[in-house]
Amino acid sequence: MKDRFAARPGEQRLDAPFAMHAEITFIGHIESDWSLEDCPRNIGQAREAGKPARLWVEPQFRAGLDGIVTGDVLVLLYWMDRAPRDLIRQKPRHRDTPTGTFNLRSPARPNPIGMGVVRVLELDIDAGRITIDAIDTINGTPLIDIKPHIPRVDQLPA
Q1: Using CA atoms, how far apart are residues 51 and 121, in angstroms rounded to an integer?
Q2: Are 83 and 137 in contact (CB under 8 A)?
Q3: What pLDDT does 4 receive?
Q4: Where's the TsaA-like domain (predicted)?
C-alpha cells in the first residue's frame, strides 16, 4: 500500500515532538463508505459520489441532539486519527510549490481536526444515528462535536 502521507519534495516535518495541552472527548464516530485509499479529497467530491454517511453518537451525549431535525445543516468537527501530525509544510498534488500546513485543509497537521458542513437526511435520536448527505472522511473517524449552522452568523464580514 502506498503511503498517502509520504513526504514530497519541498515538504517539511517538525524536528521535535510538541507539547500536548488539552484532552478531547469523542462523542461518537462517523460511519462512511470511504477507506484511506479511496476517500474524497473534499466534501464536494464526496457529494458528487452520492454516498450518504452516518453519525453515531454515544448514549451519554444523545440528549444533546434535542432540537436537531431532518433538513438541518450542521457543522461537524472530527478527529482525523490516522493523519500524520508532524508535517508543517506540504506540497499538494494540485499545487506547483509547497505551502504552509495552515494554508491547506489537508488532514496532515499538528491537530488533525476536520470540519464538514452537512445536511441531515434522517435522524433517530434514541439510536444516536444521524444520516447526513455526505462526508469526506474515512469510516470510523472519531466525532468531536456537532454545531448548528447559523446562516446569519456563519457568513463573511461585510
Answers
A1: 12
A2: no
A3: 63
A4: 24-158
Read off the C-alpha cell for 45.
467530491
Q: What number does CATH give the domain 24-87+115-148?
A: 2.40.30.70
C-alpha distance from residue 91 to each of 20, 40, 53 (Å) = 26, 18, 29
Q: What are phi and psi of 65, to 5 degrees?
A: -85, -10
CA distance 138 to 130: 16
Query: Which run of H or of E encompasses 45?
Result: helix 43-49
Cell of 158: 461585510
Closest Cα partner for 41 from 84, 93, 2?
A: 93
Least Cα distance to 71 among 133, 11, 113 occurs for 133
At a CB cut-off of 8 Å and minimum separation 6, what does 32 contact? Answer: 39, 51, 53, 54, 135, 137, 138, 139, 141
Query: What is the helix (H) or strand (E) element at residue 121, kind and residue range?
Result: strand 113-124
Strand (E) or helix (H) holding 144: strand 141-148
pLDDT digits (tens, 9 = 90+) for 87-102: 999 998 888 999 999 9
- Terminal alpha carbon distance of the chain: 47
Grid coordinates representing 119 are 445536511
